[in-house]
Amino acid sequence: MIRVLLAEDQHVIRSGLVALLGLEDDLEVVADVGAGDAAVSAALAHRPDVAVLDVDMPGMDGLTAAAALREKLPACRTLILTGHGAPGQLRRALDAGVGGFLLKTAPPDDLVAAIRAVHEGRRVLDPSLAVTAWDLAADPLTPREKDVLRLLADGAEPAEIATRLHLSAGTVRNHLTAIVTKLNARGRPDAVRIARESGWLC
């Protein structure tokens, strides 16, 4: 029997998934919750074999929850469900060591098969996301450039960034120029957008 934890914030969808999985002889839903932080607590309490986590949840998103489970309960494998497979999400999922990444539009049989595969230690990727995975580019930004870009994304001006990072104003300007160039961005706001969508600015 594969013990499953289900975390999905939309009650109707969660109830439907619980009913669906309950039809399988080898699957048992031991807990279902509506928030990411609740998923971690429930996993520690119920010790599931597989945690099926929605990406977008209140409290803690599914990818953060997956990373927490990997650290606190390594025997529990994780399968991510998402409404859209953005490159940044897929990159974070891979970094978090998830076993599977599936779109919510997948047929029910695919979800059941994915849970079994993840439980067996195999990796599962929704076929429609294969091209996205292939196209994931390496992060071109240095750690310092990401520090600068995070502050810029938070609304800080270059002078404030320089003060907070103990850099000269000229060094900050050089970093910002390098960032825009590396990301082939139209400007600073576009650089923030590209970095976020690519999963380089979490």
From TrEMBL:
One of the Pfam families matching this protein, by short name: GerE
InterPro entries: CheY-like_superfamily, Sig_transdc_resp-reg_C-effctor, Sig_transdc_resp-reg_receiver, Tscrpt_reg_LuxR_C, WalR-like
Keywords from the UniProt entry: DNA-binding, Phosphoprotein
Record domain Response regulatory: where: 3-119
All residue ranges annotated as the HTH luxR-type domain in the record: 137-199
Record-linked Gene3D superfamilies: 3.40.50.2300
4-aspartylphosphate modifications at: D54
Alphabetized PANTHER family for the sequence: TRANSCRIPTIONAL REGULATORY PROTEIN DESR, TWO-COMPONENT RESPONSE REGULATOR
Protein's name in the database: Response regulator transcription factor
Organism: Actinomadura gamaensis
Lineage, top ranks: Bacteria, Bacillati, Actinomycetota, Actinomycetes, Streptosporangiales
